[in-house]
Write a structure and sequence with these properties.
- With 393 residues, the protein is α/β, with parallel strands linked by helices.
- The chain folds into two domains: 274 residues, Zn peptidases (Aminopeptidase); 106 residues, 2-Layer Sandwich (Alpha-Beta Plaits), CATH 3.30.70.
- The chain contains ten helices and 16 strands.
- Helix 3 runs parallel beside helix 4.
- The radius of gyration is 24 Å and the shape is elongated.
Length: 393
C-alpha cells in the first residue's frame, strides 16, 4: 500500500495545491466540492452524492454485503490573508487553507484511488464511505457545523466505524501521534457584560465602576481551573477580548468580555459554565450587574480505543515502530467529535512540519506543510479500510 501511495504522490500534491490556491470558507466550498466530485468520477467505480450537509460530498465503493467503514476529510478554509509566499498561494483574497484541510481532501481522494485497486483484487465484504465534509472550522448562525449537517443528512447512517487524520504542522514530518479516549477538547465560547454606573473620572465615588469590578472578576476567572476543578481534569478558561471605555476621564458604564472554555469530560464542562458565571456575579458585590451568554461548541473528541488500535497497528505494519507514538493532542477542538459519537471513531495526527525549522502554527498566515507526508496518510487510511473490508482487523 505504501508503494502504491508513493506512486500517486505527484497527483496528491497537484490536488492539494489546486485546493490550496482556491480556498473557500465553511458551507461555501462549491468549487472544492465540484473538484472532489469530478475527481471521484474520473477515478470510477464509486457512487457519488453531492450536496450532503449542504456542500459536502459522499462517495461509496464496495459490494455492500457487510459492514460499513467511513473515512472523513474536511474541506473548508479560514478567513486569513496568506503570507507564505508559495507559488501555489491563495488566489482568494482574505481566505487561506491555514489548517491543512486541503491536504486532508487530497489524501482522501488518494484513498479513493488506492481502494479502487484493492476492490479489484481483494474479496471485500461491506462498503467504504468517503466523507468530504464542509465547515469544520465554524458553526453557522444556527449552531450547525459541517459534521452535524452531514449527520443530519444521513452521511453516517449504517456506519459501523469512522476514521480520520489531521496533519500537524509542528510535529516532525512522518511522525504519527495516537491517543486513546479523550484526545481533543470540548470548546465553548462566552460573552459577558459587566455593568455599573459610569460618570466623571474625577468623581468615582458617585458611581459604580465596571473596570474596578473587572479586577476581582479576572482573578476569579483565571482561578477556576486551578481552584475549582480537580487538577486531574484538563481544562482551560481564557479571555480573548476585553473592551471598555473610550477616553481618559470618563468611567464607562459597561465592560465587555469574550472568552473560551475548554474541557475534556462533560462533568467538568458543565462545572466550568457554572463557575464562569459565578465569577461574573462578583460584580453584584460592588454595586454592579452582569449579563452572561454561553455559546456551546464542539464536544470533546473521544477516540475509540479499538478503532484507534486498528489505525495504530496498520501504521506500525506499514512504517515500523519508530514513527508511531502515543502522544496527547492538546486542547484544540475538532467537529469530527460529532462523528465519533455517531459511530465508533478515531483520528490520528500526521506530522507534517517542514524541514526549514520555522514555526508554522495552525491558523496562522504562514501555515504550511511538508507535502511528502500525503502518501503516508493515504496509505494508512486506505490500508485500514482494506483490512476492515477483508476481515483482517
Amino acid at each position: 500500500m505504501i508503494e502504491r501511495a508513493n506512486a500517486i504522490a505527484a497527483e496528491l500534491v497537484r490536488l492539494r495545491r489546486d485546493i490550496h490556491q482556491h480556498p473557500e470558507l465553511g458551507f461555501q466550498e462549491f468549487r472544492t466540492a465540484a473538484l472532489v466530485a469530478d475527481t471521484l468520477q474520473e477515478i470510477g467505480g464509486l457512487t457519488v452524492q453531492t450536496g450532503v450537509g449542504r456542500t459536502g460530498v459522499v462517495a461509496e465503493l464496495g459490494p455492500g454485503n457487510g459492514p460499513t467503514i467511513a473515512i472523513r476529510a474536511d474541506m473548508d478554509a479560514l478567513p486569513i490573508i496568506e503570507k507564505t509566499g508559495q507559488p501555489y498561494g491563495s488566489t482568494n483574497d482574505g481566505v487561506m487553507h491555514a489548517c491543512g484541510h486541503d491536504a486532508h481532501t487530497a489524501i482522501l481522494l488518494g484513498v479513493a484511488h488506492l481502494l479502487k485497486q484493492s476492490l479489484a483484487e481483494d474479496n471485500w465484504h461491506g462498503k467504504v464511505r468517503l466523507l468530504f465534509q464542509p465547515s469544520e472550522e465554524a458553526f453557522d448562525a444556527n449552531g450547525v457545523s459541517g459534521a452535524t449537517a452531514m449527520i443530519e443528512d444521513g452521511a453516517l447512517a449504517g456506519v459501523d466505524a469512522v476514521i480520520a487524520l489531521h496533519v500537524a504542522s509542528t510535529v516532525p514530518a512522518g511522525e504519527l501521534h495516537f491517543y486513546d479516549g479523550y484526545s481533543m477538547a470540548a470548546v465553548d465560547a462566552f460573552e459577558a457584560w459587566i455593568r455599573g454606573k459610569g460618570g466623571h473620572g474625577a468623581y468615582p465615588h458617585e458611581g459604580s465602576d465596571p473596570i474596578f469590578m473587572l479586577a476581582p472578576i479576572l482573578n476569579a476567572l483565571y482561578a477556576i481551573p486551578s481552584r475549582h476543578v480537580n487538577p486531574l481534569r484538563p481544562c482551560v478558561v481564557s479571555l480573548g477580548h476585553v473592551q471598555g471605555g473610550f477616553t481618559t476621564n470618563v468611567i464607562p458604564s459597561e465592560v465587555y468580555l469574550e472568552g473560551t472554555i475548554r474541557s475534556m469530560d462533560e462533568t467538568t464542562r458543565q462545572k466550568l459554565w457554572h463557575e464562569v458565571e459565578r465569577a461574573l456575579s462578583l460584580s453584584q458585590a460592588f454595586g454592579g450587574s452582569y449579563e452572561f451568554k454561553l455559546h456551546k461548541g464542539y464536544p470533546s473528541l473521544n477516540n475509540n480505543p479499538q478503532v484507534n488500535n486498528w489505525l495504530r497497528q496498520v501504521a506500525r505494519d506499514l512504517l515500523g515502530e519508530q514513527p508511531v507514538q502515543d502522544a496527547e493532542f492538546g486542547m484544540g477542538a475538532e467537529d469530527f467529535a460529532y462523528m465519533a459519537r455517531a459511530a465508533p471513531g478515531a483520528m490520528f495526527m500526521l506530522g507534517a512540519a517542514l524541514p526549514d525549522g520555522l514555526l508554522r502554527n495552525h491558523h496562522t498566515d504562514v501555515f504550511d506543510i511538508d507535502e511528502g507526508v500525503l502518501p503516508t496518510g493515504a496509505a494508512i487510511l486506505a490500508e485500514t479500510a482494506r483490512r476492515y473490508m477483508t476481515g483482517q482487523l
